Amino acid sequence: MLTGKQKRFLRAKAHHLSPIFQVGKGGVNENMIQQIIDVLEVRELIKISVLQNCEYDKSEVAESLSTGAKAELVQIIGSTIVLYKESKENKVLVLP
Predict the structure, then answer these.
(1) Where is the CRM domain (predicted)?
(2) Which CATH number is 4-84 given?
(3) Which one, 28, 35, 61, 70, has least CB within 10 Å?
(4) For strand 80-84 and strand 72-77, is the pairing parallel, antiparallel, or unpaired?
């Protein structure tokens, strides 16, 4: 679990990132979760945007993505989800 201080730190780091994935009409699937796991291993912190045509609520999408990828949900801001997962080999971020 992330502390408030760690979440603030990650939110600041994520501010300049662009969303890498988009969740649309089909919602979340296994293939997408696998790709997110792979990208999180390299980058640790990513943004995902939920498109307007998505049939699911953004909090449902965030829940299924973070659970599926075993990642921490940092925040949901607007239609953007920020996820963090500590990398095993490519550790970049050092949490406070």
Answers:
(1) 1-96
(2) 3.30.110.60
(3) 70
(4) antiparallel
